[in-house]
Amino acid sequence: MDLVVTPDLTRWEWKDEDEYAHVRRLGIVSGTEHRAVDDARAEVLAMLAERSRLFAHAERWAAWRWEPVWPTPRLPRSRAAANRVASEGG
Predict the structure, then answer these.
(1) Looking at residue 87, what is its pLDDT?
(2) Residue 47: which residues within 8 A CB-CB, separation 6 or more?
(3) In which residue ranges of the chain is pLDDT below 50?
(4) Number of independent structural domains in the chain
(5) Cα–Cα distances in Å, from 25 out to 3, 13, 21, 48, 52?
(6) By C-alpha distance, which of 12, 3, 5 is closest to 59?
(7) Do 41 and 47 meet the contact criterion of CB atoms below 8 Å apart?
(8) Which residues form the DUF402 domain (predicted)?
(9) 0.70 exceeded by the pTM?
(10) What is the domain range of residue 10?
(11) Does residue 24 fall inside a structural domain?
């Protein structure tokens, strides 16, 4: 689950909670897995409240900007995709 936090760390919300509840109802996420998710959620919220670890230097992250001169990142082409393109004459 994604946690969306405002840059000043004053507000937050979990994304996709309804989808998570749905997979829980379907039994895709077991009780054991759910407890691990709950533990992880509690841990990250504690870090947020304490402004520790990931959230210790939030002001630096809030000020971070992409440099326009940096090249756009690209994922490497997989061999399967390269082979498919080659076999299709692309």
Answers:
(1) 65
(2) 53, 54, 55
(3) none
(4) 1
(5) 21, 22, 6, 29, 34
(6) 5
(7) no
(8) 2-51
(9) no
(10) 3-66
(11) yes
What's the pLDDT at 76?
87
Q: How far apart are the first and last CA of the chain?
A: 38
Does 46 map to a domain?
Answer: yes
Say how many residues make up the chain: 90
CB 7 within 8 A of CB 58: yes
Single-letter code of the amino acid located at 36: A
- Report pLDDT for 50: 95
At 12, which helix (H) or strand (E)? Answer: strand 12-14
Q: Outline where the chain has alpha helix (H).
A: 17-26, 31-50, 58-63, 79-87
Rg (CA), the chain: 20
Rounded CA gap, 43 and 48, in Å?
Answer: 9
